[in-house]
Amino acid sequence: MTESLLEIDRLSVDYETARGDLKALRDISFDVRKGEIVGIVGESGCGKSTLISSILRLTAPNTRFRQGAVRFKGEDLLQLPERKMRNLRGADISIVFQDPMQTHNPVLSIGQQMLDIQHRSKASKAEKRARAAQMLGAVGIPDPEARLAQFPHEFSGGMRQRIAIAMALMSEPDLLIADEPTTALDATLEVQIIERLQELQQEFNCAILFISHHLGVIAELCDRVVVMYAGAVVESGEVREIFHDPKHPYTRRLIDCDPGHIKERARVLPTIPGEVPDLANLPGGCIFRDRCDQAMPRCTAEVPPLDQLKNGHHAACWLNHKEAAE
Amino acid sequence: MLLYAIRRFGLALLILIVAVTVMFLMIRAVPGDPVQIMLGPRATPELQARLTAELALDQPIWKQLLIFYGNLMQGDLGIDVFSGRSVTAIVFEQLPHTLWLILGSIAWSATLGIALGAYAAAHPNTLIDRITAAISVSFVAAPAFVVALLSLLIFAVNLQWFPAIGAGEGFWGRLDHLVLPAFAIGLSWVGYIARLVRASMLEVMGESHIRTARAFGIHERRVVMVYALRIAILPVVTVIGVGMGFLLSSAVFAEIVFARPGLGKLVIDSITTRNYPIVMGSVLISTGLFVVSTALADLINAWLDPRARTAA
Q: Which of A167, A312, B62, B164 makes a 20 to 30 Å CA pair with B243?
């Protein structure tokens, strides 16, 4: 087994709000190994964005880290002084954000922005420009040198996302975080971006933490997957394991609801009934039990632990315990 | 950019022509015979007839307008009835005083206002933010003529730091005389611009591209000063451009209170003496100033914001 690059260890994060602490992340644990692609999947509001901003420590001022650690190459990022943290951002850890239309500064040229993010490099301005053009070429932007002078609004959404990927990979990071990079794009572009990302991952040999709510993309791209629900990890493991033998009812329902998975013509698309519990006022027991059709008395009483079921396959559900079979 | 500039100034010229025409017709629509007002009740009919012919008042209105524009093209705004001097000369003699007053007020109030606003936005809801908010709001609420009178009393009469009246001689003399009036006119703008920049900054700082800049480890100072401020000052530039009109009217107060020469004082003096050619000339120049400053603001906006260039 290769060594772990990023290790999230029992991380809990709260948001302080007027109506009490919002428990955005609770006891999150998973890791990303070198050169591996790990997917995080979950509905909106499940804490994916909080997780990313916690890794980069670009959190809102009312964020409180209650427990746990975010270890990157063995070093706890939550303990790092701000100056050291800033040295990691855009160097060892890069990110591609969700909405390509909003991700670039609208009043600075693409070239200027690509020059700016090389602020650590000692290279001359001409060399930095050449490097920027080379990266634009690598993500498939035609005529890159001329396009450096252009502004974000002169590019299409798909191109802007490719530019964002070029910018993120320019420093040859060890870890690339991709926060729903294809959600804002249409399906054909999505395929292009995913394929490009796969090629570049091979070329740069970086690990990718890929956040998506699109199961098809996760299955296509990732080695392992982490399923999150209402701020907690409910299941994690190899992609094949999770998709063929899901061990948590939520994962099962999620797969059933994926439009790509529906084979017959349906009048009504399947959904998961019920709502995500209020994170400021969490009920005891399993967080999914109100929406779960297999809930048992035990689910109300105790929080199910994230148990290892098989090699590397974890799930947090009482159904996997022996007494459920009886 | 060049094409945009040409189009924008073309538009400015069009606005100016419409404004001047409307103004010309309005003055003609005012009841009373200007010749009688100018010459007084005891003028002989021959004299009246001569002046009427000289001012082309016996011609139909469209012809008067054409003559007016013909003279305007040659820089001729008519003759001052009392001194017999060219109105153009009189107006351009006074214009620099007002121009310096306005530019001075804008320069100091915009600099301080943008700095205060940006600082407050970078530290929202802190004590300093609240203090700047209180100061800004009280500045906005202070009318220029009150500030003018109070600063005259405090800094010129009691403390005797700055001269009270006039425009001064030489560069330093002029600058010394400019301080109090520019302070009086600019003060409410400091507060206004600070509030505007703060709100605009807070909005921009919440946008995704700022998060991107931070995620690439760009220094926070550069994020605030370049990545955010450059977008946040766009509305300020527009507001200042349009605000030139307000500044012109505040300049009138300041010029009266500080007994400064300038366009405002010229207009007031000529209205009280019913010196219509001078009123017409000064208003024309003020209109021009206003139109040019809004056009300039748009150009600066286009220079700062590439998105505005295509959307002309």
A: B164
